[in-house]
Here is the input.
Amino acid sequence: MKRYLAANVQKIPPSGIRKFFDLVSGSKDIISLGVGEPDFVTPWRFRDAAVNGLEQGRTTYTANAGLPDLREAIAEYLYGSFGVAYEPKNEIIVTVGASEAIDLALRALVGPGDEVLVPEPCFVSYAPIATLCGGTAVGIETFAKDDFKLRPESLKAAITPRSKVLILSYPSNPTGAIMTREDYEPIAKIVEEHDLIVVSDEIYAELTYTGKHVSFASLPGMRDRTILVNGFSKAFAMTGWRLGFACGHPDILGAMLKIHQYSVMCAPVMAQLAAIEALKNGMEEKDRMVESYNQRRRLIVQGFRDIGLDIHEPQGAFYAFPSIRKTGLTSEQFAERLLLEGRVAAVPGHVFGKGGEGFIRCSYATSVSNLVEALERIGKFVRTLETAAMV
Amino acid sequence: MSELHQKILDLLREDARRDAKLLATLLGVTEEEVREAIRELEEKNIIVKYATVVNWEKVDHEKVTALIEVQITPERGRGFDAIAERIYLYPEVKSVYLMSGAYDLLVEVEGRNLREIASFVSNKLATLERVLATKTFFILKKYKHDGIIFEDRQSDHRMAVSP
Here is the structure.
């Protein structure tokens, strides 16, 4: 039946993560550092707000763009936390996860012939969606020696007359890289010069450990050139609720809203009710979780250093991205053998695009005791590789 | 108390067996700083004890716990402290709190069976000179104690690998 599939869909390769997932699913007694979501259950007060809503019969559609109260809370939150101002009426859409916001933004902006610049290694969905839109994703490699920051020279080198959209996703999944205001300034200049539009996926904005997150939209002149994407999954431990949002210029948001209303109508109302509670009364819970990730971040970084693997310091999100080059194995070989021989699951870096080969992504969103045990197993596994190499 | 002290207390409350090396790594400070902070906390009796939380229901072990509301006449000059001390020195008394509201002390008592607790109340507690009245409530089941849920049903539902 494959001959019925649309050409654009056939162009998309199957997800590398999927293949690894199948391998892990068949294994027992493993510790997984492969999970891309918080290990906290959604705080009870947010869950309770949704339960309360259900009891009150809040089971209907909402406005396409989301509950007005939620959009107002989002506007207040973004202004208070990151200094970016959006009008709740026509500059904010509540989406089904930040994933839908990315999909909407790219569908609204990208057509045949357009090039989408994607700094890599990065989250796995940008390039496939650009392809679905008929565009071409152009990967820009970033490097461990730069802490995986996007360098202006690399961006410049990738630009062609067809370049239209630049994706920024900092703090980064999988590298934990962040961009400071100083890092962003030359990028903003290039964006202006080449008349690019930016989709800034800031889903990990709350999870930074060495300074407050800088939103790309807060740079001078960048607000209207940026579609800001964020959501509740990571900061508020609400992955399964599927709730995100997009903000930007009304012309573009209006086009995104059109797609949104035809494809999903609106985000689930109970999730929106929980999100209002999260923004209004959830900051303390959020801070508690961030502190806990930070402790575990220190633990995993120290652990990899003790093992003798090179690692740059991740400054955001909840991933460590150590280099496994010195073992002589590819990421895929290392991850597969670590799973089978060491009983630890980590995601091989190459699935995240250019520059990911030679690294593995280890999520530290798991308990301290799990991390201690996993690091011990990884250490043992790496030592057996070293011994084998010496023989 | 410093932020470091507070964080150490939080981490030890989760798991009292965490050693100075692990705490130092988690908090991004030296082992020396952690040891010094713990020594201070112990000295000031802020860390009172490192104890184990036991779910006694799982142990084949007869045990009954009651909460007793106690109304008393305070003693001139010493308030409630003297009578509280007379009560908490009994080994079967597990905790004593001074309360606001309709009664004065809340006393947690443990015994092997109902009769043992009844006899403690009638022979020891109620006969104390300043005790005016007592009301005994037996605990049927413990769900959560000191922040710890006994039968935690919230296991990890996450998929082992996700993007």
Observations:
- The CA atoms of residues 148 and 154 of chain B lie 13 Å apart.
- The radius of gyration of chain B is 21 Å.
